[in-house]
Write a structure and sequence with these properties.
- There is one protein chain.
- The chain has 2 domains: about 90 residues, Aspartate Aminotransferase, domain 1 (Alpha-Beta Complex), CATH 3.90.1150.10; about 230 residues, Type I PLP-dependent aspartate aminotransferase-like (Major domain) (Aspartate Aminotransferase, domain 2), CATH 3.40.640.
- It is about 40% helix and about 20% strand.
- It contains 14 helices and 14 strands.
- The chain has about 375 residues and is α/β, with parallel strands linked by helices.
- The protein binds pyridoxal-5'-phosphate (PLP).
- Pyridoxal-5'-phosphate binds next to helix 4.
Length: about 375
């Protein structure tokens, strides 16, 4: 084993020397709070954007009315064998109805969804144009797939247009890949502009990941595509249940043909156990009630605007246009020191470091949720 231990410890020494070691911290969560090493901290690091984790009434109501076929804690099989339960079918139907689309399909996680979809959808006659800052799950799917892919500068529509003009005739198909709210900067893609490009070039389709926007944006909580009034124009509209929806898994809303194709071609869907029916039933419970959470969405938007203005005034530029608000610190050590200081004031905020963000752009990533009061926000701003 010594050769292996030497290899592992040398690579860990590099991480530690760069202030870039990651550790798993046990945390018990309790509504808006997380308990870390005996200290109760206001949780500003999670993705429970609508604070549904604190909705004991919903959790209680759900548990009371659960039907026998939903009370299964495992699907015990891939969805292609015996793992596609009535709850899975129900979630697909609810998604299709809410989004006004023919079909939907669910996946065990958002990572699996992006990774599997992107390499199933494209071949070597396809060009993928992806925003420079898309999530690792999309990058990994592109790296393993056979399509050629290029990155355009983050949210730089002129750069994207130049790449489209230059390449559109050399490929049979082009897929533009973006997030709507970006996970580390909290800024928002111009989906309407992307739709306009799709109309300009006949062989272009759009793939948009709404992981951080589902539940949070739009008049009924369907995300930025609803807010920007282009739901029907996104060919592959994906998102996750693990953030604002306080559940687990990923989804795509799409055409019947796309769904049929994915069931036959998407390896992580075919070769992995489906989500437990109990989780799917909870997801459906939340989806059915999304439209009723407009007050929470408005409150979250209000908190976000106040924090963004505060960062702008005291720290310079703030790119965020959402509830995800970065505070750039530069070095890893500086970001870690800031996060430690906030902990001493009772707040849990994570330092995000490379490779999650570019080198020398280590930052605090503050993620707000609709359960926070204005007083709690003011306390955070004072401590910053
Ligand atoms: C969190 C996230 C994912 C991954 O979703 P999981 O369900 O956690 O695997 C995918 N895309 C984006 C943009 C995300 O932020």
């Amino acid at each position: 084993m010594t050769v292996w231990n030497d290899f592992l410890s040398a690579r860990m020494a590099d991480k530690i020397a760069a202030d870039n070691e990651r550790v798993l911290t046990p945390m018990a969560r309790d509504g808006l709070y997380a308990e870390v090493a005996g200290q109760r901290l206001l949780n500003l690091a999670g993705n429970d954007y609508l604070a549904l984790g604190a909705r004991r009434d919903w959790q209680h109501d759900f548990a009371q009315h659960i039907a026998a076929p939903e009370a299964y804690w495992s699907s015990s099989s891939s969805q292609l064998l015996t793992g596609h339960s009535p709850s899975h079918q129900q979630v697909e139907q609810t998604l299709a109805r809410l989004f006004g689309r023919e079909a939907a399909l669910t996946f065990a996680s958002g990572y699996q969804m992006n990774f599997g979809l992107l390499n199933a959808l494209a071949d070597n006659h396809t060009l993928i144009l992806a925003d420079k800052l898309v999530h690792a799950s999309m990058v990994d799917g592109l790296l393993i797939g056979s399509a050629k892919f290029l990155r355009y500068r983050h949210n730089d529509m002129a750069h994207l247009h130049a790449l489209l003009s230059q390449h559109h005739s050399a490929y049979e198909r082009i897929l533009i890949v973006t997030e709507s709210i970006f996970s580390m900067d909290g800024d928002v893609a111009d989906l309407r502009q992307l739709v306009a490009y799709k109309r300009e070039f006949a062989n272009v389709a759009l793939y948009v990941d709404e992981a951080h926007a589902i539940g949070v944006r739009g008049a009924t909580g369907l995300g930025c595509a609803e807010e920007q009034d282009c739901l029907a124009d996104i060919d592959f509209l994906v998102g996750t249940f693990g953030k604002a929806l306080h559940s687990v898994g990923g989804y795509v809303v799409c055409s019947d043909l796309t769904r049929q194709y994915l069931i036959n071609h998407m390896r992580p869907l075919i070769f992995s156990t489906g989500l437990p029916p109990i989780n799917m039933a909870w997801t459906d419970y939340v989806l059915q009630r999304l439209k009723d959470l407009q007050a929470a969405r408005t409150h979250l938007q209000h908190l976000s605007q106040r924090l963004i203005e505060h960062i702008h005034t005291h720290f310079g530029d703030c790119v965020s246009q959402s509830h995800i608000v970065p505070v750039l610190c530069g070095s890893n050590a500086a970001a870690l020191a800031r996060a430690r200081a906030l902990r001493q004031h009772g707040m849990l905020v994570m330092a995000v470091r490379p490779p999650t963000v570019p080198k020398n752009q280590a930052r605090l990533r503050i993620s707000l949720n609709a359960g926070l009061s204005v007083e709690q926000l003011q306390h955070l701003m004072a401590c910053l």
